[in-house]
Design brief:
37% helix, 8-stranded mixed beta sheet, disordered N terminus, 7 helices, alpha/beta
Length: 259
């Protein structure tokens, strides 16, 4: 009995182990069902910062969900949004391009889809609605930049190997979200002139922005360990750029949410 009591005492004294939980969250845009996924650490209590995650052009696949889970492990509540609807995911570039173009053809609609995910994130009682950020990869990187140009309520956005759409003239003086963008110098999808124009227009807009370009052979998709599985030469994982950008994102959030 004494041994049993001692075991029970030790078990009670041990700290609870963090466990990331998730649940599906359904909403609707233009008559189409959008199913996103919310992630959080169930050991933490009280409102905490929330981060919206926007997927690559492949759709809301396991990679985007894994990044949301990683954010939850860092103590944030993360919501991986479905930008295409219907849970559509592909590994075929032509199909991915078609879906992406359907969304990006209407800039206002593009922003509205993303902000729907923001609304779902803020709806969680675990989230402090005053401390919200958004991150995105590839198509998702371009998406969070468009959110910033459109006046999102997020305090900051982070683009990883995004398409780098330029800030429109009407956004001048109106970009309230801080911007952090990571880019690979050898990215054949986003040419140097596009990156240069992106920076020039951001400076003209008066935004608070930072642009990090990784030199050498850092290509598109550098954060995704599965980038080379699609059979596209310009997609390549780079472990160092992935590690560095994730660390810089964390520092960015620490400063962003402390204000």
């Amino acid at each position: 009995m004494r041994k049993m009591l001692m075991c029970l005492f030790l078990a009670a004294a041990m700290p609870a182990q963090a466990q990331v939980q998730s649940k599906s969250v359904e909403n609707e845009y233009d008559g189409e069902k959008m199913t996103g996924h919310l992630y959080w650490d169930d050991v933490m209590t009280g409102p905490r910062p929330g981060v919206l995650v926007i997927h690559e052009w492949w759709g809301l696949n396991d990679y985007a969900k894994e990044r949301a889970k990683m954010l939850a492990e860092l103590g944030y509540v993360a919501f991986a949004a479905d930008m295409y609807g219907g849970g559509r995911v592909t590994d075929q570039p032509d199909q991915a391009r078609e879906w992406m173009q359907e969304v990006t053809a209407d800039v206002e609609g593009w922003r509205e889809r993303a902000e729907l995910g923001m609304t779902q994130l803020k709806a969680s009682a675990m989230v402090d609605p005053e401390r919200i950020a958004a991150i995105g990869y590839c198509f998702g990187g371009g998406t969070v930049l468009q959110m910033a140009y459109g006046g999102t309520s997020a305090k900051g956005v982070v683009s990883f190997h995004g398409s780098l759409p330029a800030a429109p003239e009407e956004a001048q003086g109106k970009v309230g979200a801080r911007i952090l963008a990571f880019h690979g110098y050898a990215d054949g999808f986003v040419k140097p002139e596009i990156a240069s124009n992106f920076q020039e227009k951001l400076e003209m807009s008066g935004a608070d922005w930072e642009f990090v370009a990784y030199g050498g052979d850092v290509r598109h998709g550098f954060t995704n360990p599965g980038a080379g599985n699609y059979g596209i030469d310009d997609l390549k994982y780079d472990a160092q750029a992935d590690f560095d950008s994730w660390q810089r994102m964390q520092a960015f959030f620490s400063d962003l949410f402390a204000q």
